[in-house]
Design a protein that fits this description.
The chain folds into 2 domains: 44 residues, no CATH class; 224 residues, no CATH class. With 300 residues, the protein is mostly helical. Helix 4 runs antiparallel to helix 9, helix 4 packs across helix 11 and helix 8 runs antiparallel to helix 10. The radius of gyration is 23 Å and the shape is globular. Helix content is 53%, strand content 0%.
């Protein structure tokens, strides 16, 4: 089937949305917003309110452009809140992995194939790490290259500092589970199962990338996250939640933040933001009724 749709003017975009049933309080303001936020980007926010089996995509419930815009702004604010929290979590993961393995296995532990499960993955990950080191303009990397020739590669606290969170999560996942170092790191983050921590690292990495690329987190179906059945510290008692929705991710982020940054403001900022959630869309993010009653969301 050949794609035949043609670009249309902003005024025609408004006319098309009106013909489908979207309401407008001020078309001039709507035109201004559509000149800065693309029609196609906003389509992701109108989609749940339309009959998408009908080629004309009519709206199936009364909704206005202004309400859709508020939902878009809410999603942006949620991304910023999550991205800020994920920065702290990523740094803590990176610090613990580098420190504990360096103390147990030396400064160049990341280059030791004996510490890994799958040799092919190890080779691939180290090759990817080398590319990231070569691309890096960090002063400490350039200093190492200019000063030292043996070993050629920088120690773990330099090399893994410039790796992406995604690559770091892959390296951690491939580390042998029979090494007590991996258990030590896992327990530092309040977990007993190393596979759960590896899953959280991977899922948080994917969420971080979604936030960094300004993609939608509201109503997104994400990678399934493992919920700990026997966490060391206070977690959610209601685990009958959707593990691929952002609420599950948020609960796990709150759990980690309570450990690494006890004075954090994530809880307060999240509750304030959710109080402004438009169009009763909490459910689309996986938030269950009464979620604030969980102990993890209670003020200490």
């Amino acid at each position: 089937m050949k794609y035949s749709k043609q670009p249309i003017s902003i005024q025609d975009q408004i006319s098309k949305l009106k013909s489908r049933g979207l309401q407008f309080a001020d078309e001039a303001k709507a035109a201004h917003y559509l000149s800065n936020i693309s029609f196609y980007r906003l389509r992701a926010y109108t989609y749940p309110f339309q009959d998408n089996h009908d080629p004309e995509h009519p709206f199936i419930k009364p909704v206005s452009f202004e309400e859709i815009l508020r939902l878009y702004v809410f999603d942006r604010q949620m991304r910023l809140l999550l991205f800020n929290a994920l920065e702290k979590i990523e740094i803590a993961f990176r610090t613990q992995i580098i420190y504990e393995y360096a103390m147990a296995h030396g400064p160049f532990w990341h280059l030791n194939p004996a510490l890994y499960n799958k040799p092919l993955f190890f080779v691939d990950h180290i090759a990817s790490l080398q590319k990231e080191i070569d691309r890096s303009k960090e002063t400490f990397i350039e200093h190492y290259k200019a000063t030292y020739s043996d070993p050629k590669e920088p120690p773990a606290w330099m090399a893994l500092e410039v790796s992406s969170m995604g690559l770091l999560s892959k390296i951690f996942s491939n580390l042998r589970g029979n090494d007590s170092t991996k258990d030590l790191i896992t327990r530092h983050f309040g977990l007993k199962d190393v596979d759960t921590l590896a899953n959280w690292m991977r899922c948080f990495s994917l969420l971080r990338n979604i936030c960094a690329h300004h993609s939608r987190v509201w109503n997104r179906r994400m990678t399934k996250l493992k919920l700990p059945r026997k966490p060391i510290f206070t977690f959610i008692s209601n685990q009958d939640i959707l593990p691929y929705k952002v609420y599950a991710y948020i609960c796990c982020m709150q759990y980690i933040l309570n450990i690494i940054s006890p004075g954090h403001s994530f809880r307060e900022r999240l509750i304030a933001l959710m109080d402004e959630c438009p169009l009763l869309q909490e459910k689309e993010m996986g938030f269950p009724k009464g979620w604030q009653q969980e102990k993890i969301w209670q003020k200490a």
